[in-house]
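Lab notebook: predicted structure, single chain.

Context: the supervisor wants predicted structures on file for every construct in the current expression panel, including those that have not yet been purified. This is the next one on the list. No modifications to the sequence; it matches the entry in the shared construct table.
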Amino acid sequence: MTTTGEDRAGDPPPGAGLWWWDRMRSAVLDVSLAVVSALECGVEGVRFARDAGIPEAAGVVFGVLAGAVLVLRRRWPIAVVLVSIAVLPAQMGFLLGIVGLYTLAASELPRRIIASLAGMSFVGTLIVTFVWVRQGVARGELTFGDWVVPFASVTTALGVTAPPLLLGLYVGARRRLMESLRERADSLERELQLLAERAEERAEWARGEERTRIAREMHDVVAHRVSLMVVHAAALQAVARKDPEKAVKNAALVGDMGRQALTELREMLGVLRSGAATADRARGAVVPLAAVGAAAAAAADRELTGGDEGTAEGPCLSELEELIGQSAAAGMVVELSVEGETRGYAPRIEQTAYRVVQEALTNVHKHAAGAKTQVRLAHRMSEIAMQVENGPPPEPASASSARLPSGGNGLVGMKERVVALGGVFVSGPTDAGGFRVSAVIPAA
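Prediction complete. Output recorded below exactly as produced.
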């Protein structure tokens, strides 16, 4: 089926119209045009019958049938144009030819077919007009000069064929343009929907990564501080009556540990509260789709790159001596050795190195209390390496004397931190019965 621009805007689903019409309005329009064309050709058929010497009724019937072909213009526009050309010698089908050419030019048919049929219609109109005007001049009905015959023929042929042809070409081009724009709009809408879905996925992924990071931080802070507090409390209980002075010292250390743990927890909770307030404000505002996608992508990228390193907060390598001193105060025999020239690193690198040592010492408190521990830190040209190795506990029962619970997440969290920065993490028992934790982190 060949359609024109009249059928496009607001089309209902296929099958909602009648026969080859998509809409009832189109069917009514075509039937009305066909009726008018049939009446015109029927009236002109009377004159044709007189000139041809046939009964007038036959001329009227011929004209009505020829004019009624216009009802097929959307289905077979070529047939309509051919019929209009065929009835040109009978000097009928004026409306049939004009509407047929318009429908043909506005259709999706190849341009060479449109040009061929338009040329045939132009030549036919030119010949018929030339003969009609020449006969009028010969009979004396027209008193103009001989120049009127070709002028009138060309002018009439152009006036009958050019306007409907150009109008049809314009309507067809405009319809194709609107279809193209509509397709582009649909494509853009699908792309925006896809971007929104991807942005939501990346935002959800970023939230999951942030939750994991916060869980690691909470584990490091709580596990280490509370483990030391439990160790000191056990020591306090053991020496409370025998050595009151040492008991007071241990009680002070427990208080210091508790205050440090509370301070770090408050800092983390403050960050969480500020993040929640920002999220609430974002949910209460109307944000463009592109901004949502950009914000989610930026959050994911910050998580991948470790965020804004210039504003990162947390422990650093300069605090390692204090950390080791706290473990020594809890009764652990621990030594720190540093190799290479000490220098500064990106905040996240220093924080990760600190947390690895901190968690390793916490595990010694939990599983090998009293064991001699060696902490090594090596500053290399393009990386920083750390190793925490402890020997076997002095007494088998000492490993569990403090009854410290273990969630099994310490080593997993350390490995996640190191691997996220492109480093290497290895842990496992030693031949001497102790345990070793090693990590290498790129300095860049």
